[in-house]
Amino acid sequence: MSDSSTSNSSLAGLQHSEPLGHGKHHPELLHHFADVQQQRNSASLGMWVFLATEVMFFGGLFCAYLIYRLAYFGDFAAASKSIDATLGATNTAVLICSSLTVVLAVWAAETARRTLLIGSLILTMLLGLAFLGIKGKEYKDKFDEHHVPGASFSFENVPVPGHPGQYANPQHAEIFFALYFVMTGLHALHMVIGLGIFTWLLIMAWKGRFTPQYNTPVEIGGLYWHFVDLIWIYLFPLLYLIDRHL
Amino acid sequence: MSMATPTIQPVVRENYERENYLNKHYGVGSWLLTTDHKRIALLYLVSITFFFFIGGFFALLIRLELLTPASDLVQADTYNKLFTMHGMVMIFFFLVPSIPAVLGNFLVPMMIGAKDLAFPRINLLSWYLYIIGGVMMLHCMLTGGVDTGWTFYAPFSTAFTNTKIIEAGLAIFVAGFSSILTGLNFVVTIHRMRAPGMTWSRLPLFIWAHYATSIIQILGTPVIAITIVLVAAERALHLGIFDPKLGGDPLLFQHLFWFYSHPAVYIMILPSMGIISEIIACYSRKRIFGYSFVAFSSIAIAVFGFLVWAHHMFVAGISVYAALLFSLLSYAVAVPSAVKVFNWTATLYKGSIHYDAPMLYAFGFLGLFTIGGLTGLFLAALGIDVHVTDTYFVVAHFHYIMVGGAVMGYLGGMHFWWPKISGRLYPEGWAKLAALIVFIGFNLTFFPQFLLGYMGMPRRYADYSHMPEFQILNVFSTAGATILGVGYLLPMIYFLWSMRYGKPAPDNPWNAAGLEWMTPSPPTTFNFEQEPVVTWEAYNYDELDAPHKQEVPVVR
Amino acid sequence: MAGNVDALYIFLIIVSGLMTLLIFTAVVYFAARYRHRRGVLAEQIEGSTPLELTWSIIPLGVFMVIFIWGAVVYFKERTPPRDSTEIYVVAKQWMWKLEHAEGQREINELHVPVDRDVKMIMTSQDVIHSFYIPAFRIKQDVVPGRYTVAWFRATKPGTYHLFCAEYCGTQHSGMIGSIVVMPPAQYEAWMTGGTMTGGTSGPLSVTGEKVFAELGCVTCHRSDAQGRGPNLQGLFGAPVKLEDGRTVIADENYVRESILDPGAKIVAGFKPVMPTFQGLVSEEQLNALVAYVKSLSKSASAGASSAAATPPSTNAPTQGSQVQ
Fold first, then answer.
1. CATH second-level architecture of A52-240?
2. How do the domains of chain A map onto residue ranges?
3. Residue B556 has pLDDT above 50, yes or no
4. What ipTM was reported for this prediction?
5. Is C251 in CB contact (< 8 Å) with chain A?
6. CB environment A131-158: b (16+ within 10 A), e (fewer)
7. Confidence tier at B65 by pLDDT (50, 70, 90)
8. CA nearest neighbour of B221 among B281, B262, B192, B251
9. C contact test, residue of A73, A75, A157, A163 with most C CBs within 10 A
10. Which domains does chain B have, with CATH numbers?
11. A13 SS3 class
């Protein structure tokens, strides 16, 4: 390759690792990585770092929520009572199951079980769609009850739980619903993106691109899905279960 | 430990005609679809220079208006838009990306011995997001602009102004995503793609600085993203999150906003500090004094930087106890910065100092950053801050750091690495002149503003005709600004000139330490023919200079 | 007060000046003394931990001195003295409306007597503004939805700039006024002279009593223990036990919140039946109501009748405006 007396001679005296030849490496190895392991580790770390940014993104919302909940607890409790905790709990169960199917998918990819992989991916997506469907029903209910913030919002004469005779302040309830829609809406958006990612994973799996040696996309797609699930696991009790008693 | 004996290459005519990253492929498509981190760096260079001049143009108009007390050049509404757009463009479209996206992108892989960043396609996506955000911002400005100040405080921004807040907010949101992805790329690259032997303690301080910066970008930027989402939602849907008339809290906005925007200033200064370390080491021909302390101080600044945001809110209505806490923490974050300045100064001791243009920028940085940082002490003192916050004192303080610090470092770095980037040498005489003009122009522009601030001139005032006593200092400031503008135009011109007419550069014109200098100027697309194995410490200037009893002549 | 701020400022200038001089001298000296020379190599010095510790700890020590000094000044700035003359300030785009407790109203101007502690109780009608008197070295943001407080004691007669220091829209730079500090006799003359820019309306607490009656507050807040709402005699400044167990001090913000958002803090032993007056009462009316409630404490402690005592306005400056 290069003549050692010209431009690269500054490196001439250095020890070198094995020069990368072609034809010996894994077909999925990207050119700028030294080996598959480095590629896999980088992808994995990249997804974890991205999830850290997502934590901070949702974190701002959680902060705003916590501050207002502390300030307007009674009104938030009244508003929380009006959203359907059964649907919320169902959705929680749906997502937890979908995380199980994700784990199965990752394992299937690692152990070359193509049918299980494809089946798990499809099942995950179906569960995700179910989640979005239930969410849609909830949003529709809120719309019908005039609980969507904006011009037609109405929250009159709703009692504050545990405080007979006291009615919730509609303005504060509107803040609850504003946060409810932004938080669950953002979460739902992430679910939709997750469905997109899994569609792509499904196509790749169908084409047989995942092997025990190379299944990184499934792994990091799975990480993303678990994260979105985890956000919901925080959202559910915070939004649906304020001051509820069994 | 075997070591190459790097020699100064005789200038070989074929050096820049040899295949390198610039000439490997031709055509617009090869640039717009590149995944080569060096090409992406140049894409960024062109775009941020463009926005720098847009922001600078707004600054010029502001300073022209302030020549006279009355609001006679532009109306108050227009002036309000000018300072808003100046701030938004300069911060989000110039300062935050500049060094990481240009020099960081170019150098991080090379300095650690890698072929590229961990995610080259995400790198390209970052640039496209930046461009999309930039286009949105341009459109917003051309169709009316925003007049809230770059800080867009609620409830003015959510319920009172009728300018294009949502569009500007979305533009910043998109650009912020670009920043997050760059930071993510750097963190993963630095963790996973260092060449064999490149341990953490052998990393150039430039890398440490960019690592710390990336941590801030990753953890801080999402918070302003969600703040923008909330402001947009509140504006569009009349929610009440920040509007007290609807039960909301305007101070919540300020907390959320500053939680990012304070660490953001460290995003803007830390990379510049990294550059200064490289320049001072090279032109003193010695290792940076206190390497570990400088490295860890970068991390300390990043961490502590997240704990001081409410020092922007001392008079906002926070409790006295909160104010005490944030003032105390603000003094804590000043210590690592001071430590760096002391270490850079100590590096000069018993060095072998050269006065090349990059070093002049570094000297300028030392002076201006010291002054800017010291005035931060004034602002962190609660009793003083009450008087000078929201006045020109603050404006002067942050311009000393952002312009006197970050931009000086950026220019110094552009000069230092220009031969590597372009394969050409810039004209040294003109470069020295430009450095001097920038330094003089800068001080004349901004030092009077400290005085104006203490005298009580509030910021964001289009009209000061009730206080004509402020005029003379404003005139000095404007005069300085025009000189500063000339100082910035010069490098633009001679860098462009050098790409065609500059002397071809050898691989290592400064005989500098660092893996990036062990590649051709300009480098090939994959940087290294073979993956290097590092067996030496950073800043091995003793080894680089040792064989030469005579001082190593720098090739001109 | 301003003197304290300036003293700290000068101290900081000296410290910064010394530090700048130190760095500049070191840099210039080293750059000259160690300029590159043929045959002379740089000496590689790794570092010096003792030096690092020294130049970390000493600056930290200096910073702590500055911090404490600044904190002490700030504490004083944020703690208005007890018997300050109260001025109610309502900021709006783009003017300052100021009302003396005796009812004199001013627009963009504030007349005060020299050597008197003056406390501004401020709120905004719209966006955030900031009340800034550079000559007195004080500044305080004026926030919609709550009261913020600032105070000063002018020591020299004269006219001083008042600026808005928080960007608030188009005429932000036009929201300028003056603080007119007068010797006592001149101030008394001004108070009775009727030349104030906003006219006069009688003592604020009396206005407040009228509003209290007009809005029907008196129906529930009786001056005995039979009312559906708490008796407001002696309320202001005293601790209040709430039904959720908390205890809060009844300050201006408490009174304001109780009117605009009564459900936020229910007093122990009372039902949550008070309606909200959000949107039904202006900032000026709120100020008057706050002044009235305050007067119920002063007169209660002075053993006077529940009707607000009305000081003759000519006597106001010498008796101190805290008597309402």
1. Up-down Bundle (1.20)
2. 52-240
3. no
4. 0.90
5. no
6. bbebbeebbeebeeeebbbeeebebeeb
7. very high
8. B262
9. A163
10. 29-542 (1.20.210.10)
11. coil
